[in-house]
Amino acid sequence: MAETGLPEGWEVRHSNSKNLPYYFNSSTKESRWEAPAGTDIDKLKMYMAQYHSAAQIGRDGVGSGAGKIRASHLLIKHRDSRRPSSWREPEITRPKEEAIATLLGHEARIRSGQVSLGDLAVSESDCSSARKRGDLGYFGRGEMQKEFEDAAFALKPGEVSHVVETASGVHLIERLE
């Protein structure tokens, strides 16, 4: 067991839509609000107090401490996504190739200056952050899926990524701060 007290394969992540921590198993792609069976609750309480306490959360409800960045994204889910449903579509059946092709079309429009990622995210993103123009708020290392995090931290403020694939689907990411 790691310092979190969670069983092997589990980690604590932060839900930007609910501004709450949750538990994610990177092997099975399972996510849940309650600690999984086999958790050392005392260790978990200590970890949560140290890394997810109110003292680390800013007045706007989002941590913006050292080492954190702010990004927005546009997510297109496909039938093999972790949760193939969204606020836009209750059941997503498109293949991954179609999701990538759609995202490449959006990327071309953004790069040509026709539209901003935030403006497109409002109507085209399968993430609930669409209502906030794709804004995920501030996050640090270890709070997002690794592929997403690596791409976001590699960007300079104002830059937009190419297609980034995660268990959630395919994304375009814009680093805001």
From TrEMBL:
GO molecular function: chromatin-protein adaptor activity; peptidyl-prolyl cis-trans isomerase activity
GO biological process assignments: co-transcriptional mRNA 3'-end processing, cleavage and polyadenylation pathway; positive regulation of transcription initiation by RNA polymerase II
Alphabetical list of Pfam families matching this protein: Rotamase, WW
EC number: 5.2.1.8
Residue stretches in coiled coil: none
Domain PpiC per the UniProt entry, residue ranges: 66-177
Catalyzed reaction equations: [protein]-peptidylproline (omega=180) = [protein]-peptidylproline (omega=0)
Domain WW: 4-38
GO-annotated cellular components: cytosol; nucleus
Keywords: Isomerase, Rotamase
PANTHER family: PEPTIDYL-PROLYL CIS-TRANS ISOMERASE, PEPTIDYL-PROLYL CIS-TRANS ISOMERASE-RELATED
Protein name (Swiss-Prot/TrEMBL): Peptidyl-prolyl cis-trans isomerase
High-level lineage: Eukaryota, Fungi, Dikarya, Ascomycota, Pezizomycotina
